[in-house]
Amino acid sequence: FTIRVNKNKFGISSRQLLKKLAEEKIETRPLWHPLYSLPPFKQCFAYKIEFAGRLYREALSLPSSVPLNPSGQQRVVAVIKAGKV
């Protein structure tokens, strides 16, 4: 599952939230790294990429594996809510 973190509304950036979750042993990661910005693809044509960089900066993929039970889900939600400044 993926969330977008609006720093102005939430109070911290997605990367700051990622660090807070990591401190609680909750693994998250940025949504994806846009291919157009990787060295092998810098000279390649990219179509309609205006929003990709913003998504990369703001979006986090949350834990969603099969063994994640309801109490684990609630823990992730609680840490996210506590991360809000």
Molecular structure report:
This protein has 85 residues and is mainly alpha-helical. Helices cover 41% and strands 9% of the residues. The protein has 4 helices and 3 strands, in the order βααβαβα. The protein has helices spanning 7-10, 14-23, 52-58, 70-83, and strands spanning 2-4, 29-30, 59-61. The protein has a 3-stranded antiparallel sheet. It is elongated, with a radius of gyration of 15 Å. The two termini are 23 Å apart. 6% of the residues are buried.
Secondary structure blueprint with pairings:
Layout: E1 2-4, H1 7-10, H2 14-23, E2 29-30, H3 52-58, E3 59-61, H4 70-83
Antiparallel strand pairs: 1-3, 2-3
Primary descriptors:
mainly alpha, 85 residues, 41% helix, three-stranded antiparallel β-sheet
Note the overall shape. elongated
Radius of gyration, Cα only, in angstroms? 15 Å
Number of helices: 4
Percent range for helical residues? 40-55%
Beta percentage is 5-15%
Runs in which pLDDT lies below 50 for 5 or more consecutive residues are: none
Separation of the first and last Cα atoms: 23 Å
Structural class: mainly alpha
